[in-house]
Amino acid sequence: QIQLVESGGGSVQAGGTLTLSCAASGYTFNSICMGWFRQTPGKEREPVAVRYTGDGSTYSADSLKGRFTISQDNAKKTLYLQLNSLLPEDTALYYCAADPGPWVCNDANWSRHRAYRYWGQGTEVTVSS
Predict the structure, then answer these.
(1) Strands (E), the chain
(2) Each residue of 68-127: pLDDT tens digit?
């Protein structure tokens, strides 16, 4: 069992910055496929960025590259997502997801939300224009 607790969401104006945190427990932190998805009402959960904590391999949505950066702190067992140059369309509920399975963090599966067995409760990001 992996427990995930997100924090760091909030309300910002367009162009602002937020850093989301996801603290993990219940599993060896340096061997998890772990990342971020976001969801707005009526839409499917959308992949943002994912990282294999073992070697730092990162996968991210092409449309978000250059604005969002994923990183980790092994000592704190925490994954981060820095959101820069935020746009109103970035408004969403951001979820942290994780799975220890080696089959998740690859080009074929990283973006499939159903591949992840463990989820946090979500943290809300609201960007105003």
Answers:
(1) 3-7, 10-13, 18-25, 33-39, 46-52, 58-60, 68-73, 78-83, 92-99, 118-119, 123-128
(2) 999 999 999 999 999 999 999 999 999 999 999 888 999 999 999 999 999 999 999 999
